[in-house]
Amino acid sequence: MRTVHTLKELRAMLRGFRQQGKRIGLVPTMGNLHEGHISLVRKAREAADIVVTSIFVNPMQFGATEDLDTYPRTLIEDQERLEAAGSTLVFAPSNDEIYPQGLARHTRVIVPEASEGHCGASRPGHFEGVATVVTMLFNMVQPDIAVFGEKDYQQLAVIRKLTRDLMIPVEVIGSPTVREGDGLAKSSRNGFLTEDERVIAPIIYRTLKNTAEQIRSGRTDFATLEQEANEALSEAGLRPDYFNIANSLTLKPASPDDSELTLLVAAFLGTTRLIDNLSITR
Ligand code: PAF
């Protein structure tokens, strides 16, 4: 497995693979890889001959008060894990490689509707940053397929829409959330949790499951269910950002007639913001 840091090196490597007729897969990450990321690489391996894993902590998707500076950067360990998982190539560019003129002067990609509400409402500009860097990665790697985690449900919706709208010839594949034994979704941010917070954190998935159970048993009073879920999270010591019951396709508030629903949650535990979701069919 090779690691390259510049677009020039990346393109040279990919040219060779393309000449050999290889199918190229991309797994975009911000590094500090855990089992969730590794499952994305494995999925990409099933669908492609060559897997490029990008590692770039994208400053454009962090708000001014967010954790850009403390976001864990663990390139050496990530390389070892990626090699074991069967990634062919790691692309780990610097900020200057991606944003040579700086963030303020860089062209941005805005994805209407999919970026609205949920995390889009609480993290203004976040999905603009994600959409911009993912579009650039698609252009740099020109993959046949790209794999993203379903844990970031809204992000996946944003990426699917930008791919369709900008007619980018890549197949976007979603990969199921990987969880700890107690249900907590694997996340690089779990490492920020104190021991006590880590004990509390699985309440997020339990609350999703409880709410899904209530809906399956026939409840359609979604606003009340959302309020009850927020209360359950608050009582456990979290500070809910949102708990929303949405139409899985549009991500708009669910109506009682919808058959495909997704429950989306974001909550703070101490200073750590955790997200999760659960989709159900009625
Ligand atoms: O999900 C992530 O890790 C990031 O948002 C992504 C898709 C790599 C873009 O920076």
Automatic annotation (TrEMBL):
Q: Which UniProt keywords apply?
A: ATP-binding, Cytoplasm, Ligase, Nucleotide-binding, Pantothenate biosynthesis
Q: What gene codes for this chain?
A: panC
Subunit structure, as described in the record = Homodimer.
Q: Which residues bind (R)-pantoate?
A: 61, 155
Q: Tell me more from the record.
A: The reaction proceeds by a bi uni uni bi ping pong mechanism.
GO MF terms on file?
ligase activity
Return the protein name. Answer: Pantothenate synthetase
Q: What class of enzyme is it?
A: ligase
**InterPro entries, alphabetized:** Cyt_trans-like, Pantoate_ligase, Pantoate_ligase_C, Rossmann-like_a/b/a_fold
Active site: residue positions = 37 (proton donor)
